[in-house]
Specification:
This protein is an alpha/beta fold. The chain has a single domain (2-184), classed as 3-Layer(aba) Sandwich (Rossmann fold), CATH 3.40.50. 38% of the residues lie in helices and 22% in strands. The chain has a 7-stranded mixed beta sheet, sandwiched between helices. Strand 2 and strand 3 (44-51) form a beta hairpin. Helix 1 (22-33) packs across helix 5 (152-175), helix 2 (68-79) crosses helix 3 (112-121) and helix 5 (152-175) runs antiparallel to helix 6 (177-184). The longest helix is centred in the C-terminal third of the chain and has 24 residues, at 152-175. It starts with a strand and ends with a helix.
């Protein structure tokens, strides 16, 4: 069985440590823990690894956030992966920092990456792991906030939250979304 795990973010050194790139950070940590290496391929950076009897394709789209659906569609078709074996890792300003929420479907909640994925797939029915980045910004400051770097306090807590996100991904692939949600959504 094959899975596509997509971490959303923006490419380039200016964005590497920003809140909007938490999806890339999680996939980088997952690849490192799996001894997988990303290669620059069509529409993104791709790494492949195995988890017991499962094959995982890790994708960090190089299309920028608001065109993520193009990369996702290409790799789903290329690797013959169905939507039920897709997991998108994404930042979420509606959740407090570090909160993890795994969902089998849902709206884009104003997130441009999810909005484009929904347009391209023609459905909201795909799993997403939403990682809270908080919403500590003044009115009109959302763009600067999500494209800003984590605070020192958040940076200290980030490794543990990323490790938990990796555990959620493993559980999603090995036990299924219901078991993973039951185990991790209240932590």
């Amino acid at each position: 069985m094959k899975y596509l795990i997509v971490g959303l973010g923006n490419i380039g050194p200016d964005y590497e440590q920003t809140r909007h790139n938490i999806g890339f950070m999680v996939l980088d940590a997952f690849a490192k823990a799996s001894n997988a290496v990303f290669s620059d391929k069509r529409y993104g950076f791709v790494a492949e690894t195995r988890l017991k009897n499962k094959s995982l394709v890790l994708l960090k789209p190089s299309t920028f956030m608001n065109l993520s659906g193009n990369a996702l569609r290409y790799w789903m078709q290329k690797e013959h992966i169905e939507a039920e074996n897709l997991l998108v890792v994404v930042d979420d300003i509606t959740l407090p920092f570090g909160t993890l929420r795994l969902k089998p479907s849902g709206s884009d909640a104003g997130h441009n990456g999810l909005k484009h994925i929904q347009q391209i797939l023609g459905t909201q029915k795909y799993a997403r792991l939403r990682i809270g980045i908080g919403s500590d910004f003044s009115r009109g400051g959302q763009i600067n906030y999500v494209l800003g770097e984590f605070t020192d306090e958040e940076r200290q807590k980030l490794p543990e939250r990323i490790e938990t996100a990796i555990d959620v991904i493993r559980s999603f692939c090995l036990a299924g979304i219901d078991a993973a949600m039951n185990q991790y959504n209240n932590r």
